Amino acid sequence: MRRICAVNRFVRPVSGTLLRRLALTSIIANVGIVVTGGAVRLTASGLGCPTWPRCTDGSYVTTSEMGAHGVIEFGNRMLTFAVGVIALATLLAVLLHRPRPRGVLPLAVAVFLGIPAQAVVGGITVLTNLNPWVVGLHFLASMAVIAAAYALWRRIAEPDGPTVAVVPTPLRALARITTGVGVAVLVIGTWVTGSGPHAGDQGAARNGLDPEAISQIHADGVFLLIGLSVALIFAFRAVGARRATRAAIVLIVVELGQGVIGFVQYFTHLPGVLVGAHMLGSCLVLLATLSVQWSTRERRPATAAPDTVPADSATAAVPVTA
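Structure (tokenized):
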């Protein structure tokens, strides 16, 4: 008992403000690793360290013989450790936070474990000589970690009461469809990348898809996504859901910006700077889409009356399970 008291004397609960800042830092760090990973591919440094987990067969670190490509690839690997440290700090902060909201710990664990899982996929990418399908999976794994980090960040700020819908059920379904189309656009985007010129190394294979045809399919998906997003704006405004409307407007702005970058890079033969900006834009589109999804529901304080109407919606609150 004395030992427990002694430990408690030095271990202080982590504030909600600090925890939320750590979670936000985790989001930014995971977006950053996507951008730096893109820099590795765009500088043809994907095999700068030709093996994994070592950089070479005889060294865990880059050597002078590896040149600039080795430095770039090894540097990106080191950044993965930094992202992991942030995820670990966030997990420890969750464990020390009191009172701990329900569902926060599993999300923190998912983000923390997602970092090494994503690194393993990156290792497989190297061991398969930058197989374009594995490269795409590597990118999508990062997107999954970003989604978990965003969910953690949002959940930390919520009370522990019941979750209620602030828009009618059909509009929640429309938001889910929009999210699904957004994910499909991300997946097809990796196919476009796998068919294009930026393979990450001069000797890396391509996926064999026709670049023009798959780019057209990707563009069609983007048009559908933008159309659904515009529909969300008008639908949310019709029911008086102001918070959801704002989130949908942000989404359409991000999508339009991403679309402009995509068209410009296509017609300018994919300059590396624009491709990197497009990768950053993909992360922002994902985050904006998740924000819309979150805006269709809210979690009430445990003591709130169940029949309270949301402040930003003219619709009655409906209990939901998500």
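Residues 3-8, 304-316 have pLDDT under 50 and may be disordered. The radius of gyration is 22 Å.
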